[in-house]
Structure formats: structure tokens, C-alpha cells
Amino acid sequence: MALVNQYESLVKYETAILVSSSYHMHSAGGAAGKNKRGGGAQVLPPLDKNGQARNEDYLNKILPPQEMVENNQLWVRYVSPTPATSADVTNLRKDLDKKLESMGARDCGICPVREELHIQCFDELIR
Predict the structure, then answer these.
(1) Going by C-beta distance under 8 Å and a sequence separation of 6 or more, which residues neighbour residue 86?
(2) Where in the chain are the domains?
(3) Residues contacting residue 50 through CB under 8 Å, at least 6 positions apart
(4) Neighbours of 99 (CB within 10 A)
(5) What is the mean pLDDT for each group of 10 consecutive residues in the chain (127 residues)?
(6) Burial of 77 by CB count in 10 Å (0-12 exposed, 13-18 middle, 19+ buried)?
(7) Residue 121 host element (H or E)
(8) Do the strands 73-77 and 17-20 form a parallel or antiparallel pair, or are they unpaired?
(9) Residues near 93 by Cβ (< 8 Å), separated by ≥ 6?
(10) Contact 16/74 with Cβ under 8 angstroms?
(11) What is the pTM of this model?
(12) How far apart are alpha carbons 8 and 123 in whole angstroms?
């Protein structure tokens, strides 16, 4: 189940889940553009039997799942709910440095590549 067009991110995601095997994009934006933050009002998740909302529900509100379409199939990846270790933080710093260099981010001035990578890094820290 290897997806060719997986969106590479510094945020840890779980394995993609097949949602629909016959998915057709109806709008120009499609499902691929829904992996960014923002957009309309969000409703709080429902409470479980004990009156507590699940941590995964809050995590999915902060960092929405990624939706990908490949070969008319809709795939969804949720943010990993497992806590990060100190080794994960060290690896995040190394991965950020590698991506900054490989994507040609500028060292000074306004750089959209650097901005996007730092947003991903902060999202992973929040996770």
C-alpha cells in the first residue's frame, strides 16, 4: 500500500487509511488542499461516556488529517497521537536542517520555503 504522492512533512503522521475506493473530485480545490489549517468555524468534538473528549479529537482539531487522492481513491492520514521522545526532538532538528538545505531555503530575508518548514516544525512541537 505504498502511496506515491504522500506529502512529506516534518509532522509525524500515521499510515494512510483508504476512505473511498471510487472517489471523484467535484470542486477545483479537491481534497488535496484540505491539509492546511484555517477555514470556517470548528465544532468541539463529542464527549465520550465519561464526559471527556478524546485527546485524538483535540489533536485532529489542532492539526487536521491530510486527505490525498490517488487513482480515484481517497486516502486519509491522521497525526500520530504517540508522545514524542527527546530523541524525536533531536531527529526533528536534524530533519529540519536537511530539508532546509535540500529545498534551497535562503539564510536571510523572506523565504517561503523556510517559513513553510518552520511551520511544520512548530506543528510537530505542538503535537
Answers:
(1) none
(2) 17-77, 86-126
(3) none
(4) 19
(5) 54 83 57 44 55 72 84 86 89 92 89 92 87
(6) buried
(7) helix 112-126
(8) antiparallel
(9) none
(10) no
(11) 0.62
(12) 14
